[in-house]
Every structure is written in C-alpha cells, then in structure tokens.
Amino acid sequence: MDDKLQHQSIQYDLHRLVVLMIFIGASIAATGVYLSVWFEYQNIGIDVLNHRADFLGDYTKTPYAFIYNMSLMVAGLCTLLSMTGLYLLRLSSFSRYLSLSGSVVGLSIVLMGMFPINYLEVHRLISTCYLIGTVVMFFLCISDKFSHNSVCSWPVFFLSVLGFIAASGLVLQLNWHTLDYTPCINHTIKQHYCWVAITMWTLTNIIMLWCLAFAWSIRNIAIKNYLELSQRYLAGEY
Fold this sequence. Notes:
Layout lengths: L1 H43 L20 H25 L3 H22 L5 H25 L9 H20 E2 L4 E2 L13 H40 L4
Antiparallel strand pairs: 1-2
C-alpha cells in the first residue's frame, strides 16, 4: 500500500510540474511578446502586425529585442521541463510522443531566443525545426483525441486543429531552398497585407492559448486521478 501511495504522490507532483511549467512559460512568453509589440507599436503603429514576429528579436532594429529574446528563452526552458514531466507521467503512448515533439518545440524556442534573426543562417534552421515540431505536435494531439486515454480535452483539440492549419500554412509559404519566407516588401511593390506575418502572429497566439488549455487539461486529469485514489483508499482497496 505504501509503495502505491508513494507512486501516486510522485505522479501527482509530476502533474503539478507539467501544469505550473506550461502556465508559467505561456505567461512569460505572452508578456514578453506583447510588451515587444507594444513598444514597436509606439514607433510604427498597427503596421507592426505586418512584420514577422521574429523581427521583434532583431537587436539592430529595436532596443527592446532583449525582452522578446529573454522571454523566449525562459518560456522554452519551462516548456522543456513540462514536457519532461509529461514524458515521465506515461499517461499513454500518444502522450509520450507528444512530449517528445513538445520538447523539440521547447528547445527550438530556447535556441531562437539565443540566436535571434541577427544570426540569420542559424536562426533559419532553428525556426524551421520549430515549425516542423509544432506541426507534428498538433497532429499528435489531434490523433490523441481519438485514443483511449486521451490527454487532450476538446478545447485543446480545437486549438490543435487551428494550430495545425496555421502551421501548415507557414510550411506551404516556406522557401525550402533558403529555409526562409519571401519578403513582403520588394524593390517595386509593397503589399497591403503580409500573409506570412499574419499567419505567424496567428500561430503564435494559438500556441499560447493551446498551452493554457493543455495545462488545464492536465490539471483536470490530476484531479480525477487524485479523487479515484482517495475513493479506493477509503474503500479499503489500498
């Protein structure tokens, strides 16, 4: 009985680690990104949304790039910790694969903060890994919803569908020869809307909402498991 209770206690601690790290990471990322957007808005107005999100980390363009890059590094580390906890929980086979793809996304976020767009070639490679990681992560979450022990609630599922569409849109717009996107502004034509930037901002917001919804889903699983354990203990099964 003691071994079983100790195991359940460790599981509950891992649940809390996953929930807290995802929530803290998403909060830090949102704070850093939106602060950077606000500061840039003071200079160029609403046109900030026609600029790619990763340009906010360009040290040669904005004096507040360190806010954006630091928030990415901290948020990425939180994501790595949360995915480690999710892997150790072993809730299902899909959750293990989801944790591995999430770890790739988390590591990519850390590296994008360390190597912003100033380090162009390295940044291109890292951001491509991030993009592929998000596509795989969303696909696994969509597939996991139809498994027996799903860790993805319906809000997470719907956000995964939207995220998969947005990430796939970026994949289709990516130039695989240069691992970069076609600039929205060229020598003769300025487009009214930059669809790459709009898609990128859409994906960024979806990912932050997905993280919060996923943390809530894991929290509900933890509460459910704890209540089941309590009922079995009171019934004398342990």
